[in-house]
Structures are given as structure tokens and as C-alpha cells.
Amino acid sequence: MAESRQDSWWQQALAVKPAIDSVNVDGSRIEYRHWGDRTKPALIFIHGAAAHANWWDFIAPFFTEHYFVIAPHLSGMGNSDHRDAYSSPIFARDVMGVYEQLNLDNRTLVVGHSLGGAVALTLAAEQGQRLRAAVMIDSAVFPPGAELPFDPTKAPYRPKTICDDYETAAERFFLLPPQPCEQPHLLEHVVRHSITEMQGGWSWKFDDKLFLNMTLHDQNAELKKLGCDLAYIHGEHSLVVSDLVLEHLRDEFAGKVPMVEIPDAHHHLLIDQPLALVSTLRALFHSWQPAGH
Phi, psi (5° rounding) for residue 255? Predict the structure, then answer.
């Protein structure tokens, strides 16, 4: 994607409008966005917890020259249906439902941020033969037996607040974990697609019961049964990927999985250091191309 002289990079990226489709997966409608030529290798971007596919709107257009780019809304979030319970295998099936509807193949790359990284790992372990590679972005994998630093008494684990109007709901939006945001125009885009009108007012799209009814696979077991290449990206100042997590992953990867730290980045790299993230992903993807391409 070339930058015009009139518009900044993010304005030009957001001007590239995706097509929107959906697929039924285990009785739930899964909506997804896609950009570019379907004959090219596929690149699937997977969002994080309580997020949505629009987080990738200003990232995806940078990859359409070489890839057919897809971003699904996982069930219970964004514009997809809610379920009675959630798990990394269920989210992986959401993604594979899109994969199968679009008749994708083993050239496909999957990239997941945070919870999406856990889903990418599940896909690499369970569906790796149908993928080229997977990338986890700032997604924590703790050593076996480690105490998890999650407190279900804190938002967004508490019931959502219903606000009288969009403006009030937007003012209440915050990033979790908290971090600086020097690109408010990107955050504004994310917020705009995080909120919807519902009975009684305006609130966030994700399912109230998302966190209370969610289970994840044994990620350490998944790390030992990868069926495709894997890479790991994290922010220098991330509050999610701690020194404990990094030390554990270095031991697990044993130099066989690329680990890239994005300087001056926090957990939400997409709105924090988006261009550095794009450059890092491009370099990784190039390293996985067959010789001569």
C-alpha cells in the first residue's frame, strides 16, 4: 500500500474498504471481513479478547499486494453471534469455518493478538498441516503451575454498563491492561466499532458472559505438537508478556521459534506501534516464502 501525499497512512488504509461475509459455525453466525484477491495465499488476522475484527482495518491493507486478507469476529465478540460457552477450540472452529467456506489451502498464514494468539497456537497445533505458519502477538503462555494474574472481579469481567448514549459509552472505553495511546485516531476507530445500541441504551458488543464461560486448551501441550512454523512477537513494555512468560517461552522454543520484541510497544501493538508491527510481519512472512519467491 503506497502512501498518498494528501492522506496519512492510516487514513489511506481505512479508505480501503473490505467486503463483509458470514458463515454458520456450530449454529452461530460468524461475520468476517476480507480484502484483496482470493487467488492469493490467505492471511487471517485474529483479534483479542472483548475486541473485534475492525482492530485490523488499518493493518490489513498493507498486506493485500501479496495476500488475500481475512479478519473474522470471533463468537461472542464484535458482530458475531454469542454462545453459551467459549474456548480456544471453539474460537479455532470459528476461524476454520471461514477457512472452509473460502476454500483456503495450506499456504494460509494466521496471526493472532492476545487471546487471538492463543487461538493461533491452537490452530498451529490442531490444524497445522492446513496452514503455512502462525504468529502469536503479545499472547501470554505461563509455565505449568504458575499463578495466573487475572482478577475476575475487575472489568471487563463485571457486567457491562448500559449507557444512555453513544458518547457516554465511548467515554467509558479503556484499554486493558491500561497503557499510553499516542495515536488517538486509531483508538477512536476501534471504539466506534466496539459499541452498539441495545435494549436500554448503548454498550459494548462483546458477550457479558464471555470471560465467565471461557476455557483454554493446555497451551504448553500445544507448543509441543506444532504442525506448522510459529513466530512470537511481543511489546517491549507489555504488561501481559512478563519476564516470567518470556523466560518460559525461550526455554520452550529453544531457539527454533523466532521471538521479536517491538521497541517502545505495549500490549496493544496494533494501535501502539502499527507500522513496526507491519514491518515485522512482512519480514517474517518473507522468511517463510519458498526459495526464489
Answer: 80, 0
